[in-house]
Specification:
single chain; about 700 residues; alpha+beta; Transposase Inhibitor Protein From Tn5, Chain A, domain 1; 4 domains; ten-stranded mixed sheet; four-stranded antiparallel sheet; 21 helices; elongated
Length: about 700
């Protein structure tokens, strides 16, 4: 029979220390035997906190959360509520360290009352938790007001809302499933800013209804640099479909069917208008500096198209021109595709006038030497449109002759030293229908690049109060970074030139330079050459005279003089005939001339809408990533490394969760995790209310 001890002896063993994992390699050890101290480890002890020191605990909590520890685990380890940790963070954010410590220091030699008296004027009075709650309520009210304002934006598709209703089973991410592996998990991060900030799904679903999947396909192509729909055959269809919110990415036949279903609706111009207008209303692009430039979209087919200009080859080639306007950070504000060379000057005026109701003031328009034209400058001055551009046809000898002492303004820009001084340049232009020329004056900016020891000049009409000399010079120097580099990177990282579904139709512009004028010009040149030849012969001949001073009958000079008179009369007749001819004629009135065709831009507009959206979202996410990754040279590569991560996806009735494989390097891994947390905190939702969550972790399978 087992005997039980009636009275158990007291346990004299000391309480053991406990270790709590806080995430990201941090551990908190609580050891009661060591005077109730806490030890924070990451391989080694990095901080020691006394449990009884309430002030040290508050500071420790704020610092630990800033290091990226998991707040739930920290709450369990310290046996305090999650709300208390949140309050400490908010108090520190709104009132600083002084507010967090209630206005007294940690010195043991002075009482709290003494410290309160010392810091009475510095600290804010009252209960900080209540004040934070009030701030949170006001912030929530501001958010609700902003959401109400955003919902009040009138998009064109709201009139036809009933016709765009989509069945629940065809909504994005409608299907529920457990964890599934996908090698395209990194591309999921584009969805979050596009849905939450750019209202992207609302626009595409509202305009195109059940044809929305083609935009998801284009999103995958732009994000992963897939150069054509035909290349989708190399994509794992089920894995890609999960990331795109589809059950499965279909074959190219179905993708083309989606494409033509969207194209036939002819809504691309209205879609672009709503998208660009929404960007400006929500402050997603800036409006202080706008850079406009044209970019060639070449055509290599057999049909006859108008010619654009290839800057690299320096020859005209068949194609179109994409007139694009960017802001100072390289985000695309607007684009329009035009036949042939296009009209960049008109686009510079139109893009501001089109969005004038959304702009608090006119932006400074920056463009290159293609826009150098005094008639264009005169028009910009008349409509009070500020601009800055490079000066054309500069006399470099005169610039080099300027004394160095005149360059009174010095600054650094893009790690280069510049000096500049300002003067005026006067123009005269006689508009059509006016008898006298109009005079106007522009500011002339003489720029000296010390690194290359080169000098050049720019022109601006902006007032010095709004753009001083240095700001105006930096604006024109920024053109290469904001507009040129934007499209160099686009062509490298995204299929910028791809045009799905070519469709050709008769162009509305069938006029060409009158071929008869070309013939007359050729004849005029030929006659002038003959006159020059006769005059050269005539000058070589000496006068052949008789003894009495009269010309000899066999002299060669009189016949040559008569020939010159005849040729000059013929030249005058040709010039008058040339003037009487119309400068341009319609090719349909001529024989042996093919009519010009133009490319339908409907499909190109849809694809470029997605490319633009991805580019602007990428710009925003890179800015967020820079907050936790200091190596600027590696920042873009890190972002694309994240977008190409493999991972897993799960869809439930409440959320769509994507888990990415962690990057190997610790710094990159930390930045990857911080970006994912930032994206998750945005709270993006699908139209059916599912939260979009992205995280970094191990395989959940």
């Amino acid at each position: 029979m087992t005997q039980y001890q009636l009275f158990a002896e007291p346990d004299t063993k000391k309480e053991k220390s406990k270790k709590f994992s806080l995430g990201k390699g941090y551990e908190l050890e609580i050891d009661p035997s060591k005077r109730n101290y806490h030890f924070l480890y990451r391989d080694n002890v990095i901080k020691i906190i006394k449990r009884s020191d309430k002030i040290a605990i508050k500071i420790f909590i704020v610092e630990a959360v800033a290091l990226g520890v998991m707040q739930t685990r920290l709450s369990d380890a310290l046996e305090i509520s999650r709300q208390t940790i949140h309050n400490y963070r908010e108090i520190h954010r709104h009132f600083g360290m002084e507010g967090l410590l209630h206005g007294y220091t940690v010195a043991d030699s002075k009482s709290r009352e003494t410290q309160r008296e010392i810091h009475a004027e510095e600290r804010t009075s009252g209960n900080k938790a209540q004040q934070v709650a009030a701030l949170r309520s006001s912030t929530r009210l501001e958010i609700e007001q902003e959401e109400a304002r955003q919902n009040s934006l009138n998009f064109s598709f709201e009139e036809n809302e009933k016709s765009q209703e989509i069945p629940a089973e065809e909504q994005p991410f409608a299907e529920e499933h457990e964890w599934e592996e996908t090698r395209y998990a990194g591309c999921f991060i584009y969805w979050i800013p596009l849905i939450n900030q750019w209202n992207w799904l609302h626009l595409t679903l509202g305009h195109y209804g059940v044809a929305w999947p083609i935009f998801a396909v284009f999103l995958l192509m732009s994000g992963l640099n897939i150069r054509s729909i035909e290349q989708l055959k190399h994509i794992r269809q089920r894995e890609a479909g999960r990331i795109l919110g589809l059950k499965k990415l279909p074959g190219k036949t179905q993708v083309w069917s989606w494409f033509y279903e969207a194209v036939q609706q002819k809504k691309s111009k209205q879609l672009l208008k709503d998208y660009f207008q929404y960007q400006l209303r929500c402050g997603l692009v800036s409006f202080r500096l706008w850079f406009t430039d044209g970019h060639l979209l070449p055509y290599t087919g057999k049909e006859k198209l108008h010619y654009s200009y290839n800057t690299q080859r320096q020859i005209p080639v068949p194609g179109r021109t994409n007139q694009v306007t960017c802001d100072a950070s390289g985000r695309i504000v607007n684009f329009i595709i035009e036949e042939g060379k296009g009209a960049m000057k008109q686009q510079i005026i139109d893009v501001v006038q089109h969005y004038s109701s959304e702009l608090p003031s006119k932006p400074m328009m920056v463009f290159d030497r293609e826009g150098y034209d005094k008639s264009f400058f005169f028009e910009l001055v008349n409509i009070s449109q500020p601009f800055v551009s490079w000066e054309k046809n500069i006399d470099k000898a005169k610039l080099l002759a300027i004394e160095a002492e005149q360059f009174t303004r010095h600054f650094e820009f893009n790690e280069k030293k510049y000096s500049v001084f300002e003067q005026e340049k006067h123009f005269e232009y006689q508009p059509d229908g006016q008898e006298e020329p109009q005079a106007f004056t522009l500011r002339r900016l003489i720029i000296w690049n010390h690194s290359s020891n080169r000098r050049t000049a720019g022109l601006t009409n902006a007032s010095p109060e709004r753009f001083d000399t240095e700001e105006a010079v930096q604006a024109i120097l920024s053109r290469w970074g904001a507009s040129e580099n934007t499209f160099k990177h686009l062509q490298e990282r995204h299929p910028f030139h791809y045009h799905p579904g070519f469709k050709l139709e008769k162009s509305g512009v069938q006029e060409i330079i009158n071929p008869e004028i070309k013939q007359k010009v050729t004849l005029i040149r030929k006659v002038r050459n003959e006159i020059d030849r006769l005059l050269r012969r005539l000058n070589k001949l000496s006068d052949s005279l008789k003894k009495d001073g009269t010309p000899r009958k066999n002299s060669q000079k009189p016949p040559l003089q008569e020939s010159v008179k005849q040729k000059e009369a013929e030249l005058q007749t040709l010039r008058e005939e040339k003037k009487s001819l119309p400068e341009k004629v319609d090719v349909s009135t001529l024989e042996n001339y093919r009519s010009f065709k133009k490319i339908d831009n409907e499909g190109k507009n849809l694809f470029d809408f997605v490319t633009t959206s991805v580019w602007n979202a990428r710009k925003q996410m890179v800015d967020w990533l820079a907050e936790s990754y200091s190596n600027e040279n590696d920042l873009i590569d890190l972002f694309y490394a994240i977008t190409h991560c493999h991972g897993w996806i799960r869809s439930t009735d409440k959320e769509v969760r994507v888990r990415l494989e962690p990057l190997q390097q610790p710094k990159r891994h930390a930045a990857q995790e911080m970006l994912c947390r930032k994206l998750t905190s945005i709270g993006a939702q699908t139209p059916t209310g599912k939260l979009l969550i992205v995280e970094v972790g191990k395989c959940p399978l």
